[in-house]
Amino acid sequence: MPELPEVETVRRGLEPVMQGARFERVETRRHDLRWPLPGDFAARLEGQTVSGLGRRAKYLTVDLASGEVLLMHLGMSGSFRVSHEGYERRPGKYHHEQPQHLTHDHVVFHMSNGAHIAFNDPRRFGCMKLIPRGRLAEEPLLRALGPEPLGNTFDAAMLARACRAKKTSLKAALLDQRVVAGLGNIYVCEALYRARLSPKRRASTVASRAGAPNPRAVALVQAIRDVLNDAIRAGGSSLRDHRRTDGELGLFQHQFAVYDREGERCPRRRCHGTIRRIVQAGRSTFFCPVCQR
DNA sequence: CCGCGGGCCTGAGAGC
DNA sequence: TGCTCTCAGGCCCGCG
User: N or C: which terminal CB in chain A sees fewer CB atoms within 10 Å?
Assistant: First the structure.
C-alpha cells in the first residue's frame, strides 16, 4: 500500500495521540509479521513514554524516552486505526462488519491517554522492530536508503549522480530506494508523467554531461517534490487498504493522471495520447507514450 | 558490485 | 454461487 505520502499521513495522524503518552499495555495478537516480533516486544514497550514521531522514507519511527526507537513499516497492506471509545467497540472498516475486522489487527497499543491504536495488516508484509537510538545509523533496514525526496539535500545534481552508472530504466531507478527513498509504483508513474519523461528511458540519460546541469533531472526533482506534496495534502491515495488513522479515506487517487488509467485519454492539454500500461521489473507502469519522452 | 525474478501473504475482482 | 486465475501502494534474498 503505502508510499511516502501515505506513511506521512499516518505519522501525522498518530503524532497527536502518541506524543507524550505512555504505552500502558501492548497486545501482540500475532507475532509473525514480515519478521517475527521478539518475545519481549510488548514488555520492552510497556511503561515507555513517547517523545516524538518521525518518518524515514516509508518507515515510521517512534522515539521512546528510554532511548530506544520503535521502527515500523506498513508493507503493502498495513494501516493504523485510532479509537478513544475502547478497542473492542471500535467500528469496523465497513458498516456490516462484525468484529472479524479484528482478524488482521496484529498489534494494539493501549496508551495512557485512553487512545487505542491498532495495527492492521492482512498481508503481513509490515514489520516492527525495537532499536537503540544510537544504533539507528547501522540499522540494516535504513542503512542503504537514499535521500529524502522532500529534504534539503535532494536536488538535481544528486539525482543525476545516483543515476549516472545505472543500466536500468528510469522507472526502475526511481523505485530503487537507494537512489531516492520513499517513492513506490504510483508516485514514480505520476512523477515521470509530470516531468514528461518516459519510464523506458535509460536512467543514465538524466545524468549530467560535462558538469552541466541536466534539465531532465531538474524537471524530475521538481515533479517528484510536487506530486508528493500534493498527495500528502490530499491525505495519500486510498486504493484498497490505505486509511487515515481516523478511518477516513485519502483522496489523491482522484488526481492520478496515469496510474491505473490504461486506455484513457492523456489529461495533458492538447496531447491526444492514450495512457498505456506496460510491465517493467515485474510491476505495472502507466504512462503517455506521446508526451512522455 | 549490479539487475532480475521469486517469494513472502491475503483478498478483490474477472471470467467461466 | 463457486471455483480458478491474476493482480495488488513493498522489499529481502539468492542467482547469474
Answer: C
Query: What domains does chain A contain, in order, with CATH numbers?
Result: 4-138 (3.20.190.10), 156-287 (1.10.8.50)
Q: Which of A277, A94, A264 is nearest to A200 (CA)?
A: A277
In the predicted model, is pLDDT for residue A100 greater than 60? Answer: no
d(CA A228, CA A235): 11
Indicate the helix (H) or strand (E) that contains A187: helix A185-194
* Cα distance between the two ends of chain A: 28
Gap between the Cα atoms of A290 and A266, Å rounded: 9
Which nucleotide has the shortest C1'-to-CA distance from A6?
A: C9
Q: Which SS3 state, helix, strand or coil, does residue A65 take?
A: coil
Name the nearest CA neighbour of A177 among A147, A220, A202: A147
In terms of C-beta density within 10 A (0-12 exposed, 13-18 middle, 19 or more buried), how is residue A278 classed? middle
Amino acid at residue number A8: E
If you ran DSSP here, which 8-state letter would residue A181 be given? Answer: S
pLDDT value, residue A89: 52
Question: Of A185, A208, A215, A212, whose CA–CA distance to A293 is shortest?
Answer: A215
Choosing from A55, A58, A129, A276, the catalytic residue is A58
C-beta separation of A105 from A120 below 8 A:
yes
Of A25, A56, A225, A283, the active-site residue reads A283
Q: Is the pTM of this model over 0.85?
A: yes
Cell of residue A208, nine digits = 549530467
Residues in contact with strand C, defined as Cβ under 7 Å from any of its atoms: A 1-3, 6, 34, 57-58, 73, 75-76, 123, 125, 141, 177, 184-186, 236-242, 283-284
